[in-house]
Design a protein that fits this description.
Elements (H helix, E strand, L loop, with lengths): L22 E5 L7 H17 L5 E5 L9 E7 L2 E7 L4 H9 L3 H4 L22 E4 L24 H17 L6 H12 L6 E15 L4 E14 L4 E4 L4 H12 L6 E2 L7 H11 L11 H23 L2 H8 L2 E2 L4 E3 L5 H10 L4
Parallel strand pairs: 1-2
Antiparallel strand pairs: 1-3, 3-4, 4-5, 6-7, 7-8, 9-11, 10-11
Helix pairs in contact: 6-7, 6-8, 8-9
C-alpha cells in the first residue's frame, strides 16, 4: 500500500520550484540527516549505478510529516512540468521516468544490494504521485558578462519627498482640489496600515563526523534550514537552494560583521573567499568547490536564486530585495540587511568560525 499522502493544501510552495535533473529526499527538520537518510541516498545512487545513469541527490527538510521519507523530482512531460512524489515502492518507477528509461527493461538490470533492499521494492500498487507545475515566465536572458550584482534603488527621505512634490505639482497643474486636510487624512490612513514583518533564522543541523577530502581531515558535516517567520507567526522554510548558494548567503551575512562586500571585490578578496570555502567544507552534499574566479562569475546567478527563493515563500518581492536578499547600492557594499548580530553569532558557533 502506498505511503504517499500529499498534504491537503498541496505540496509546500518551495517543493514545486525544485530544479530539473536532481532527486530529493524529504526529511523531518527536527532530525536532519540520519544514518537512515544516508542509506536512502545510497539506494538512489545504487540504482543509478545499475542503470549507468548520472545522479545528483539532495536532502530537503520539510514541515509536512505526510511527506517525510518520500522521494521527489521534477520532469518534463507532454502535459508540462510535473513534480513526481514517490515512496519506496514507487521509487524505481519514478527514477525510470526521471532518466527517460523503460521501467520493464530497467528492473531486469538493477542489482539489489542487501543494505538497500528495505528502501526500494519492485511491483505493487504504488505509483508516483504527479503534481502539475505552473512555470513562471522566465526573464529575458542577460549577457554572459552582465553586472555581477544588480543594484537596487536607494530610498532616502529627501528622494521620497521629491517624488511627493512632483505628484502634487502635477495635481495642481490639472487643477485638482487637494487640500492640506486631504494630505493629513491620507498620511493618517497610510500610517495605520498593517504591514507584515519578517524575521530571518537559520537552524544548523550537525550530522555525523566524516572524512573530508578537501580538508584532508575528519569534520562534522552540517545541513542548514533557512526559516523566515512573519509577524503572523507563520514559518516559511526555504528548501530549494543548493549548498553553494546557502554558503554564499551565509558568507554575506557574516562578512565584516554584516557590513558586506562590494561586488567588484568578490573577485579578489581572499578573506571573503576563505569564509565561503570554510562554510562549504562543512556543508553536506557539497559538489566540487568553485575557485574564486568562478565564484565571482556565477555569484549573480546564485544571488538571483536566493532572491527568488525568498520571494517564493513570502510572496513579497520587496522583502527579498530590501531586507532578506543580498542587495546593495551601486559602488557600495552588498549585504543581507535583515540579518541580526544574534543570528551571526549563531552561524559562527554552528560552523566553528572564530
Amino acid at each position: 500500500m502506498s505511503t504517499i499522502n500529499i498534504p491537503q493544501n498541496g505540496l509546500p510552495q518551495g517543493l514545486t520550484n525544485i530544479p530539473f535533473g536532481q532527486v530529493f529526499i524529504l526529511t523531518d527538520p527536527n532530525q536532519g540527516s540520519t544514518s537512515t537518510t544516508n542509506q536512502k541516498v545510497g539506494a538512489v545512487i545504487s540504482i543509478a549505478a545499475s542503470l549507468h545513469q548520472s545522479h545528483i541527490v539532495y536532502v530537503i527538510p520539510v514541515n509536512a510529516p505526510e511527506l517525510w521519507d518520500c522521494y521527489i523530482c521534477k520532469v518534463k512531460t507532454k502535459d508540462g512540468a510535473q513534480v513526481l512524489v514517490s515512496d519506496k515502492d514507487s521509487l524505481i518507477e519514478m527514477l525510470c521516468e526521471f532518466w527517460g528509461l523503460d521501467y520493464t527493461e530497467s528492473i531486469k538490470k538493477i542489482v539489489f544490494r542487501d543494505r538497500y533492499e528495505r528502501f526500494m521494492t519492485i511491483g505493487g500498487e504504488s505509483h508516483p504521485v504527479r503534481i502539475p507545475v505552473i512555470e513562471a515566465r522566465k526573464p529575458e536572458k542577460k549577457e554572459e558578462h552582465s553586472t555581477l550584482l544588480q543594484c537596487i534603488t536607494t530610498h532616502t527621505k529627501e528622494g521620497e519627498l521629491a517624488k511627493i512634490e512632483d505628484a502634487l505639482e502635477e495635481a495642481f497643474l490639472h487643477k485638482l482640489d487637494i487640500t492640506a486636510l486631504d494630505l493629513i487624512s491620507l498620511l493618517d490612513k497610510i500610517s495605520k496600515k498593517d504591514r507584515k514583518t519578517y524575521q530571518l533564522d537559520i537552524d544548523i543541523i550537525p550530522g555525523k563526523e566524516d572524512y573530508d577530502k578537501e580538508l584532508k581531515d575528519r569534520v562534522v558535516k552540517r545541513t542548514c534550514d533557512i526559516i523566515i517567520t512573519d509577524s503572523d507567526g507563520t514559518s516559511h522554510h526555504i528548501t530549494t537552494l543548493s549548498p553553494q548558494s546557502i554558503a554564499l548567503y551565509l558568507a554575506f551575512i557574516l562578512f565584516k560583521d554584516g557590513n558586506g562586500i562590494k561586488k567588484e571585490d568578490l573577485r579578489t578578496n581572499e578573506e571573503f573567499y576563505k569564509l565561503f570555502i570554510h562554510i562549504c567544507n562543512r556543508l553536506r552534499y557539497m559538489n566540487k568547490l568553485p575557485d574564486q574566479e568562478i565564484l565571482w562569475k556565477y555569484a549573480n546567478r546564485k544571488r538571483g536564486e536566493i532572491k527568488k527563493a525568498i520571494s517564493d515563500v513570502t510572496n513579497d518581492d520587496k522583502i527579498a530585495e530590501m531586507q532578506l536578499g543580498i542587495e546593495g547600492e551601486e559602488g557600495k557594499e552588498y549585504r543581507v540587511a535583515g540579518a541580526t548580530d544574534e543570528l551571526r553569532e549563531k552561524i559562527r558557533k554552528g560552523f566553528d568560525i572564530e
